[in-house]
Amino acid sequence: MTRVVDQHHAEVPLTLEGAPPKVLGVLDQGALWANLAVSLLGFSGALALVNAAQDAPLSLAAALTATVVGSLIGTVMVALSAIPGTQTGQPSMVLLRGLFGAKVSYVPTVLNVVQMLGWGAFELWVIAIGCQAIFGDAVPYAVWVIAAGVLTTVLTIWPLGAIRVLRRYVTIAVIISMAYFAWRFLGEAPPQSGGSWTGFGPAVDYVIALSVSWVPLAADFARHSRSSGAAFAGVVGGYTLAQVACLGLGIYAVALTGSGDVFPTFVAVPLGALFFGILILRETDQSFANVYSTTVSLQNFLPRVDRRVLSVIVGVITTLIAVWVSADTYASFLSVIGAVFVPMFAVLAVDYFVLGGRARWNTGEDAPSRWSMLIPWALGFVAYWLTTSAVTVAGWDSFWTGVRDSIGFERQPWMNGALGAFVVAALVTLLIGLLRGSRR
Question: What InterPro entries is this protein classified in (predicted)?
Answer without folding.
Answer: CodB, Pur-cyt_permease
